Amino acid sequence: ELFDAVLICDPGGTRKPDPTVFEDIAVRAGGGLRNSWMVGDSLTSDIGGGQAAGLTTLWISHGRILPDHGPQPDHVVSNISAAFQILLKEGPTS
Predict the structure, then answer these.
(1) How confident is the model at residue 37 (pLDDT cuts 50, 70, 90)?
(2) Which strands, in side-by-side order, build the sheet including 37-40?
(3) pTM of the predicted model, to two decimals?
(4) For residue 57, how many C-alpha atoms fall within 13 Å in the half-sphere facing its CB?
């Protein structure tokens, strides 16, 4: 009851960062990718995949330093509490 949809990728199936994973979960949740966010702690799978799908991205760093190379998230926070603060302030993207 807390989530509109849950998508678990099996080992033989499509996995992040493939953009179709993000499209599939958006369809299952009854929406689209427009005005959506990807929040995660993996620069490659979460942030790179979210960017490939056209999402606004928020990286939870857990104190790690953002490298100069690779995916560059729209927002960086150190923990999930800070992520919620940004999401509540920003709301859906435009």
Answers:
(1) very high
(2) 37-40, 56-60, 75-77
(3) 0.86
(4) 24
Dist. CA 17–CA 33, nearest whole Å: 15
**pLDDT digits 0-9 by tens, 52-76:** 999 999 999 999 999 999 999 999 9
How would you label 69-86 residue by residue, b for 16+ Cβ within 10 Å and e otherwise? eebebbbbbeeeeebeeb
Residue 38 φ then ψ, to 5°:
-120, 120
CA nearest to 46, candidates 54, 37, 38, 35: 38
Fold of 19-90: Rossmann fold (3.40.50)
Domain boundaries, the chain: 19-90
